[in-house]
Write a structure and sequence with these properties.
Helix content: 10-25%
Number of helices: 4
Structural class: mainly beta
Radius of gyration: 33 Å
Number of strands: 10
Oligomer: single chain
Largest sheet: 8 strands, antiparallel, barrel
Shape: elongated
Distance between the termini: 68 Å
Length: 211
């Protein structure tokens, strides 16, 4: 059987016949070699140009320093202690030197976060958080630009500071709505006697990230 009668190789056989025929051989001998310089001139974006890997966009929309104001710590009522118990927490945290790694929130430069909620909390944890925080945002000139509402959610909490639980969750309205906020703060007030005597207030500094 002639292999050229098989359908999958018809194109290959046709090409072979053309190249082996006298006219095909002559055409191959007379055809000039391609000029890379002229090809590049006709198509500046040719494959001769090196490939550039795309830059991956940052997932972080905003990151800010966070800290309680002097003389205005986060308070717990009743005080937290060794064993978890129901407490009410209130606090004001100031956000500063905010930057936007992905460039989507460059106008937000500082903020004031006020929260009020309840939780089952101890010296090292907080669960069953209920409540919300409001963040008033300001631009580089100190002008108010809007208020975000943050609903507390401890499912993604990674720290052991009970105050962080009230600053971690979903932003439900206002600037950055639909994004997730997380906070990690280091208490500046002592927790040495928390297990024995309990602690009714905490001061600290840290960072808030919104993605």
């Amino acid at each position: 059987m002639n292999p050229c009668t098989r359908r999958p190789v018809l194109a290959a056989c046709a090409l072979a016949v053309a190249l082996l025929s006298p006219s095909g051989t002559a055409a191959a001998r007379s055809a000039p070699a391609p000029d890379p310089a002229s090809a590049l001139a006709r198509n500046p974006a040719s494959t001769l140009a090196p490939a550039v890997a795309p830059v991956k966009a940052s997932a972080t929309t905003l990151t800010c320093t966070a800290g309680t104001a002097p003389g205005r710590p986060v308070t717990f009522q009743p005080s937290i202690g060794l064993l978890p118990r129901a407490v009410e927490a209130r606090g004001t945290v100031y956000l500063g030197t905010c930057t936007s790694p992905n460039g989507r929130a460059t106008r937000l430069r500082t903020g004031r976060l006020i929260f009020d909620g309840t939780a089952t909390a101890s010296c090292a944890s907080a669960t069953g958080v209920s409540g919300q925080a409001r963040i008033a945002w300001y631009n580089a000139r100190g002008r108010y630009v809007g208020t975000s509402v943050l609903r507390a959610d401890t499912s993604s909490l990674t720290s052991s500071n009970p105050a962080d639980a009230f600053m971690t969750g979903a932003i439900t309205s206002g600037p950055l709505a639909g994004r997730h906020a997380s906070a990690q703060a280091a208490p500046s007030s002592s927790l040495t006697n928390c297990a024995l005597q309990g602690v009714s207030s905490l001061s600290g500094t840290g960072r808030m990230t919104i993605s």
